[in-house]
């Protein structure tokens, strides 16, 4: 009965087995294909490859937590360090296919430099990418993340490759434009639905086929059916009771009889002098009858639809073979963006937890936001004082 050292050992071994089993089950639930938090100092330099394509145009990344942070070590990430440069860097992992599985791509972006124009997106590539030759022309599977340029572009890209062509999402998704760390997540499911989350909140969701124009439409207007001639779809018509006033028509230009012939006018040189033409103040333009609601309006004609003969479903739009590289391939006017907490997994819950632990724990406190706001105001003050010079 006495538990000898041997018995205790067996018990401990049993417990360890159970723990191991638990860990294995846990691992079986979440496949983590890639995870990068830059926690080992210079170690990242062995895992990430700078492109050498047109190297003179490329800027360097450096590892830093930036000007402000929640945690000086955990918030370290790759920062773009030179203005008006291209950036191209990538990291390779064991190839996998997302066929029949959910694919989650997630990372954090912090534009602490008050970005005015620059990409903050990532790209996912197949195993055959030549990393040293990574450029904007390299074919990618997926492009995802924020892009800011001036007041026009402030969006989250979702672009999927299908049959060697990039298909961008049709829905506008607004990205964050402030200087804090934000978490961007793309989820692609085997039922061909997708979800974009920012800071673990849904920013867009839908069906890939509906929102990305991969396939021709399922239904088209029946070309054999024409709109009936008596179908009146004019919302408004001319008011038959509105008559053109008799004094309406006036010429647009008239002679300026108040003008005088200049003294130095010489008919034999300048030609015969005549009054110049001026705009007629009485001119009222072309007469238009008043518009009234059409009493015979029948609404938009419902064109009967038929199945599109050119449509055939594809249930594998979402799936990619040999997914093996994650990369940054961007241009930045003002550098300073920090990329961190990259994750590629098949498990939405794992990604959400990882997001909360990385971005959630290290996002800046209110006090730090306040400090940052003061810096921002100073920056704009300076900016505008320069403008008014
Ligand atoms: C590198 O990429 C460029 C641009 O895409 C391409 O023209 C060139 O052929 C590539 N070079 C090699 C060695 O693959
Ligand atoms: C008009 O111009 C012609 C040709 O240059 C000249 O011979 C004539 O004297 C001019 N007439 C006047 C009134 O200046
Ligand atoms: C995936 O990569 C392997 C090894 O390079 C290759 O044999 C296979 O053809 C690739 N599959 C696709 C679909 O590209």
Automatic annotation (TrEMBL):
Disulfide bonds join 117-149. Residues 223-246 have a biased composition (Basic and acidic residues). GO terms for molecular function: calcium ion binding; carbohydrate binding; protein folding chaperone; unfolded protein binding. Gene3D superfamilies: 2.60.120.200, Calreticulin/calnexin, P domain (2.10.250.10). Residues 223-248 are annotated as: Disordered. InterPro entries: Calret/calnex (IPR001580), Calret/calnex_CS (IPR018124), Calreticulin (IPR009169), Calreticulin/calnexin_P_dom_sf (IPR009033), ConA-like_dom_sf (IPR013320). SUPFAM superfamilies: Concanavalin A-like lectins/glucanases, P-domain of calnexin/calreticulin. This is Calreticulin. The gene is CALR3.
